[in-house]
Amino acid sequence: GEGLQAQRRSTLLGCECRQHWLDEVSGRPCHDACCNTDGDPNGDWCYVQDSKCEDAKWGYCRTVGDVGEHCMDSPPAWVDADGEGCWEYEDDKLCTPAGGYGSGWKEDWGTFSDFWNDGHTAITACCACGGGGGSRSGLRDFQRDCQDKQGWKDDDGDTCGTYVDDQWCTSTGGYGWGWHEEWGTFADRNKKSQTSAPQACCGCGGGSRTNF
């Protein structure tokens, strides 16, 4: 629809899509930011404005308006690491409904992942930020009594929160929509720690009931 064309679209990581691009493989053009020019079973994708943001040239698109009016914040009373709740993200325009950064977000604050808490960031917990109840089935299985391996990071410095929020993994330890094939395997990013996300992170099918 015309309303969506004017709206900026972003990837699952919250990186802005290019409005017009040409699929380098199929040769088909896209003029609506997000298209599925190669019949990808995971759905629409786009080339991104800033490949540093996505750590790749492309990413899968966040769906717009798929949560519906009956969306509930999940967990219901979620707050971020600074104690800010979903309503503050909405009122202060810290995020967009498509999961991007809103006009109120200050660049020097870092990323949503820096404020990860209780297995979520605003883009998975808050309806106003494109998350909320039922919009991401993988996170429903998040176990409250499970604990991520304390202090775990991969070789690039990414934490369990990043793996879960950016859909790099699934709750059963597989590769999620947000993972890019060109990054290699989970093990490729964990040569130093020798413990990969599916072992260390509850949201990726790992973790432990006791800290380890």
How would you describe this protein?
- The structure is a single chain.
- This protein has 212 residues and is largely without helices or strands.
- It contains 6 helices and 4 strands; from the N terminus they run αβββαβαααα.
- It has helices at residues 2-6, 51-54, 86-91, 122-125, 160-165, 197-200, and strands spanning 21-22, 29-30, 45-47, 58-60.
- It has a two-stranded antiparallel ribbon. The chain has a two-stranded antiparallel sheet with strand order 3-4.
- It is globular and about 45 Å long.
- The N and C termini lie far apart (50 Å).
- 38% of the residues are buried.
Report, as a whole number of angstroms, the end-to-end distance.
50 Å
What is the β-strand count? Answer: 4
Low-pLDDT windows of residues: 1-6, 134-144
Percentage of residues in helical conformation: 10-25%
* Coarse morphology: globular
Q: What gyration radius follows from the Cα positions, in whole Å? A: 17 Å
The helix/strand series, from N terminus to C terminus, equals HEEEHEHHHH
If strands are numbered along the chain, what order do they take across the biggest sheet? Answer: 1-2
Number of helices: 6
Q: Briefly note the structural class of the backbone.
A: little secondary structure
Question: Main beta sheet: strand number and arrangement?
Answer: 2 strands, antiparallel
Mean pLDDT value: 79
Provide a concise account of the structure shown:
By secondary structure, the protein is largely without helices or strands. 14% of the residues lie in helices and 5% in strands. It is globular and about 45 Å long.
